[in-house]
Design goal:
By secondary structure, the protein is mainly alpha-helical. It is built from nine helices and six strands; from the N terminus they run βαβββαββααααααα. The strands form two sheets. It has a four-stranded mixed beta sheet with strand order 2-1-5-6. Strands 3-4 form a two-stranded antiparallel sheet. α4 packs antiparallel against α6, α4 packs parallel to α7 and α6 crosses α8. The longest helix has 22 residues. The radius of gyration is 19 Å and the shape is globular.
């Protein structure tokens, strides 16, 4: 869990389990359909990246998903959405159990996303940045027909460079502002965040997507922060220079992605709000979850089609979300 450290800037614990699941199994874990379980929370932006990429690539059958509840304590994420409070496949109540199965002395963050090896019940990896890239590059044998190329070879240097600054200033920047322990640390994070958002708006003013003319990994990574901005980061994390909905280019861009199959249909605003406002009790000690904002704007026309671009390149949109993974209709503005 993240906490405010008085007088100090926020520093994320980045000591992840970096074992990889690869097509050739060089780390001891070969890609095998049905062998692994992707554990996520729809509240978490890092996990949401994996949910979106998995859906865009059509890996639902090859890599089944477990959805933890939106809240947790120091003992980790729980499977309280499942009957009996246990994941029906792993048979565990808390994700912590899978981490301890891997390492009984594990003393790092119990984070999502995590990929668990079902036969052993052990976490293989929680390296969120690598997980989505490997879904694109290592799981190709199980991609759906028409799956988009989210990490095209020719664009990787540009995608990587952009992802690096977006992570530092935006994805993690909102946390650096929200968990700042001093006025100086907060001011620095707040300034960096909005300076980067301004640059991204300039970049997107004449281009429908961040890199090239199709959706890539870069768009996925930025989207998961933008979609949470007005609901939690603007107020809860004090990122309040302006709302996303008051930033025309980024607001149009975010709505364009939200209305694209594979993005908005994975977003659960109820889980997002309950997680941030209930778990971060040092920031919000009353535990009051705001009633707003109004979500209907996410479905308003965005006009980004005029910029051209082909969302899925030479591919096709994913099929409709299966009933088992559908976000409850009262948790999203999308029609059921």
């Amino acid at each position: 869990m993240a906490y405010v450290s008085r007088g100090r800037a926020y520093a994320r614990d980045s000591r992840y389990l970096t074992t990889r699941i690869t097509a050739d199994g060089r780390d001891g874990f070969p890609v095998e359909p049905g062998r692994y379980r992707l554990v996520v929370s729809r509240a978490c932006p890092w996990a949401s990246r994996a949910v979106i990429v998995r859906r865009l690539l059509g890996l639902e059958d090859a890599l089944p998903m477990a959805v933890a509840g939106p809240t947790h304590d120091e003992r980790s994420w729980t499977f309280d959405l499942d009957p009996g409070g246990r994941d029906p496949v792993l048979g565990i109540e808390r994700l912590r159990e899978a981490y301890l199965a891997r390492d009984p002395g594990y003393d790092r963050g119990i984070t999502v996303p995590a990929i668990v090896d079902v036969p052993t019940g052990q976490v293989v990896t929680n390296d969120f940045a690598r997980i989505t890239l490997d879904l694109s590059l290592e799981w190709t044998a199980y991609h759906r027909e028409g799956a988009p190329e989210l990490y095209p070879r020719a664009l990787r240097p540009e995608i990587d460079a952009l992802n690096e600054v977006v992570y530092a200033d935006v994805n993690n920047g909102v946390y650096r502002a929200g968990f700042a322990g001093s006025q100086e640390a907060y001011a620095s994070a707040h300034e960096r965040l909005f300076a980067r958002l301004d640059r991204l708006a300039e970049r997107l003013a004449g281009s429908r997507y961040l890199v090239g003319d199709t959706i890539t990994e870069a768009d996925v990574r930025l989207f998961t922060t933008l979609v949470r901005f007005d609901a939690v980061y603007h107020g809860h994390f004090k990122c309040n220079r302006r709302k996303l909905s008051e930033t025309p280019v980024l607001w149009d861009y975010a709505r364009d992605l939200f209305q694209t199959p594979g993005f908005g249909d994975t977003v659960d605003f109820d889980h997002i709000k309950r997680h941030y406002y209930l778990v971060h009790d040092d920031i919000n000690p009353t535990g009051i979850v705001p009633a707003g904002p109004d979500l209907s704007g996410w479905l308003a026309p965005h006009g980004r089609e005029a910029l051209g671009g082909r969302p899925f390149g030479d591919g096709t949109p994913p099929a409709a979300v299966g009933s088992r993974e559908r976000v409850p209709p009262d948790h999203t503005p999308l029609p059921s």
